[in-house]
Amino acid sequence: MIRMLSNLIGRGERAALRALVLILPLMILVNVAGRALKAPIFWLDELAVLTMVWLAMLGLAVTLQTREAVAVTLLTDAVPEAARKLLRCAADLVVLGFAVALLVLCWLWFDPLALWRHGFDIEAFAGDSFNFVYQEPTATLGVPKFWFWLILPLVALTSSIHALANLLDSLRAPHPAPGTGPAAAAGSGE
Known about the structure:
By secondary structure, the protein is an all-alpha fold. It is built from nine helices and no strands. The two termini are 38 Å apart. The complex comprises the extracytoplasmic solute receptor protein and the two transmembrane proteins.
């Protein structure tokens, strides 16, 4: 069930990545043309930077879901399969802990319950909590930055789901019988 949810979310994240990868170069090309014509579009620069942040965050989530992150496997390649499974579970647990910690920090940062208690009055929320996350505007777009920062809790949530699915997959992976597996096959000359 969790794996199916992770796969569904991963497909959505990859679709969003594809769209952003197409949009980003177009924004940059339009702005290069504008600068060449002595009519730069300043807000397009800021939007391109924010788009790159979204690309990086969504790319992180997809990388976690597909387990295609760069890894040093010197230790895991040198140990028996049972220890390899234990190390894989430990790594999955660390990733899950990081994703959940990021989710908790985003919850504390955005503090949606306090915002709700203030009737979504941003001024009252900021005055009471000294949290100005909802008030800070972008430099050139004039849009509140929190709309762009919402990628953080979204990726924290989806990364938590991906990490939990990976951990459950690692825990369910069967133990190989003694004397089998890649190390045994390499030692037998097959």
